Amino acid sequence: MLRANGLEAKSKLGQNFLIDLNLMDIVVRSAELTRDDAVLEVGTGTGGLTGRLVEFAGAVVSAEIDPGLHALSRRTVPGQGDRVRLLLADILRTKNELNKEVIEAWLEASRAAGASRLKLVANLPYAVAVPVMANLLVSGPVPALQVGMVQWEIAERLAAKPGEDAFGSLSVLAQSVAKVSIIRKIPPRAFFPAPKVDSAIVRLESDPQARATLEGRLARPEGPPAMERWRNFLRDLYCHRRKNLRGGLHSLPGQELGKPEIDARLAAAGIDGNRRAETLAIEDHVRLCELFG
User: Does domain 3-206 have CATH number 3.90.700.10?
Assistant: First the structure.
């Protein structure tokens, strides 16, 4: 199909097309789609997955940055109209901000179809997988479910537990507001062209109650919204991954507390300042953000 249309995969855009149809079906089944769902897909590609999403979802909005692939999908994806919208657009405005036009189109399609749930379902280009999934968790609109094909390293980071090598800021951010699971590890041969690394299907099921509790604990009268503050704190804390907590907290941007005062606050919270952040439970990270964020 690519050759017939004078196209080729662009590595700089993270274009690796899923060619295993059984795995494509697993992605769709994992999303548990009904006509009550409005789906956002990032990376329309040739439209193979898009067509399957159209079969089951109430609405589908798919964003593709490559003009050639966008034109191709316009010819291959059925049912285009208010319910199915193919956009030539970059999903990201900046690293920490999604493209508002894409998000507005997603919400409009949801309203037009009378869909009550938002979901992300996509074979995510490696270059944008983390920013897309994280920004939806932080800034929204928060999907009830995210099912994405991502690089195996990213899947490990999303699902890692405290003490594991892959555990870090992304693990804490995702698991604090969602149930994270790895559906399946995927070998390179399932894609064209084959990437040099394994991939995985990951599933993030949003937990509205956990999110509301977290936002209530971290809300402040001034400054950024609670979830943005949470993301920034985790990012800054893990910039100093090799330091113990005392050193890492002392190195936070704008931190004016001396190490004795930091130790006193940690002791009052029952947290040993000699430990490293990656050994702590999610709840301990929340308490640290309350105290130092």
Answer: no
Local structure of 126: helix, strand or coil: coil
Domain(s) labelled CATH 3.40.50.150 in the chain stretch across 3-206
Instruction: Convert the pLDDT of each residue in 210-225 to its tens digit.
Output: 999 999 999 999 889 9
The domain 212-292 having CATH identifier 1.10.8.100: the answer here is yes
DSSP 236-273: HHGGGTTS-HHHHHHTSTT----HHHHHHHHHHHT--T
SS3 213: helix
Span 104-134, pLDDT tens digits: 999 999 999 999 999 999 999 988 999 999 9
DSSP designation for 11: G
Distance CA 149, CA 157 (A): 14
Owner of token pair 């390179």: 188
The residue assigned the tokens 């970059």 is 90
For 275, phi then psi, to 5°, come to -75, 165
pLDDT higher than threshold 80 for residue 208: yes
Task: Round to whole Å and give the CA distance between 282 and 168.
Answer: 10
Tens of pLDDT, residues 59-85:
999 999 999 999 999 999 998 998 999
